Amino acid sequence: MSWGDLLDQWRNKLPEGIRPPLGRGFLFRGVIVFAAVLLLFAGIARAKKTVVVVDGGNETALHTCARTVDGALKAAKVTLQEKDEVVPSPDSPLKNGTVITINRAADVKIAVDGQEIAARTRGATVADLLTEYGISLGPEDEVTPAADTPVQKDMTVRIARVVTKTEYVDAVIEFETKRQYTTKLPEGSTRVARDGREGTERQTWQVTFRDGREASRKLASREVVVPPVDRIVLVGSSMVSRGGENIRYSEAIDMIASAYTYTGYNTASGVPPHYGVAAVDPGRIPMGTRLYVEGYGYVTALDRGSAISGNRIDLFFESYEEAMSWGVRRVKVYVLD
Q1: 304 Cβ neighbours under 8 A, 6+ residues apart
Q2: How far apart are CA 127 and CA 217, in angstroms?
Q3: What is the dihedral of CA 139, 140, 142, 148, to 10 degrees?
Q4: The CATH fold of domain 238-336
Q5: Which fold has domain 106-160?
Q6: Cα 46 vs. chain centroid, distance in angstroms?
Q7: Among residues 228, 248, 135, which one has the least CA distance to residue 181?
Q8: How far is CA 286 from the centre of its chain?
Q9: Considering the entire predicted model, what is its pTM?
Q10: Nearest to residue 284, comparing CAs of 311, 257, 305?
Q11: For residue 25, pLDDT beyond 60
């Protein structure tokens, strides 16, 4: 169909009052075509809009005839990825002057429970990211970086599962070997007077596990269940164990020990009597000799008396009651080196 035919059809559709005459020929037809072209371009001009696309902080002005936000983005060849946000929404009608904002999701990694998860998120903080991916934390779990850290592109969030457990352990308590010196055995010889026996204690440990592996343990408490029994070895020697001390002596004498208290006089050596002073027979034990008396302790021979003769010794006490309580008894007296 020619332009002439088209124009004739257009003319016939017009009312007779405004229908142009047929005799105008080529000039008339040219005017009609020109008018149609003008109308077409006017329509295109009215449909074209100017919008702004803000993508990751970068602004781009766009001239488009698209009717929706999605159409404008496609015309601009903008690619959207998973979890990227478009404001206004892609199906919103496009108007002249519209600002289209694209909030890009960040690519991150989450290392947890022995695996590494590739993730995309628009969450503001590490805590938001973990909530988004349904990762719950135990009371002792450790998060690196901290939960309130802002999310950054390509960051890796690591979660260590931390659990503290209580363990009970029955441990052995080793017995000790103690040596007691005695004059009842030949010098240098030994004899086991009592066998040793191990004891038992209940230990309570707080054990911390990080990702299933033991990280630390702390002894919280211990309780002796069965006490150990020390092994006692008797050693023949001129040294004897008394009062937790090893006493070296030159002679051990069986003596009769009596007691006395203040008489109002000084000792035969001229010093006032006091605890640790003993009266002896100077012919048996020289004055000034250091002694150890079983049941009494260390004494010095600083006094004498007419009734003290041979293997007798008189021990000083601070009070009459103490002297009466001691009475007279048989004791072992060691002459110290």
Answers
A1: 268, 279, 280, 281, 282, 287
A2: 30
A3: 40
A4: Barwin-like endoglucanases (2.40.40)
A5: Ubiquitin-like (UB roll) (3.10.20)
A6: 70
A7: 248
A8: 70
A9: 0.51
A10: 311
A11: no
The C-alpha angle 277, 278, 282, rounded to 5 degrees, equals: 130
Alpha-carbon span 203 to 197, nearest angstrom: 19
Which residue's structure tokens are 């040793």?
196
Tell me 227's DSSP state: -
Domains 106-160 and 165-233 alike in fold: no
Q: For the segment 160-181, what is each residue's pLDDT rounded down to a tens digit? A: 999 999 999 999 999 999 888 7
Instruction: List the domain boundaries for the chain.
Output: 21-103, 106-160, 165-233, 238-336
Instruction: Write out the two tokens for 156.
Output: 């890796």
Amino acid occupying residue 18: I
Q: Which two tokens stand for residue 82?
A: 């998973």
Residue owning tokens 């302790």: 297
Strand, coil or helix: what is 129? helix
Q: Which CATH class is domain 21-103?
A: alpha beta
- Taking each helix axis as running N to C, give the angle between helix 25-47 and helix 3-13, from 0 to 180 degrees, rounded to the nearest 10: 80
Tell me, which fold does domain 165-233 have in CATH? Resuscitation-promoting factor rpfb fold (2.20.230)
Residues 286-319: tens digit of each pLDDT = 999 999 999 999 999 999 988 899 999 999 999 9
Residues 6+ apart with CB under 8 A from 1: none
Q: Exposed, middle or buried, 154 (CB in 10 Å: 0-12/13-18/19+)?
A: exposed
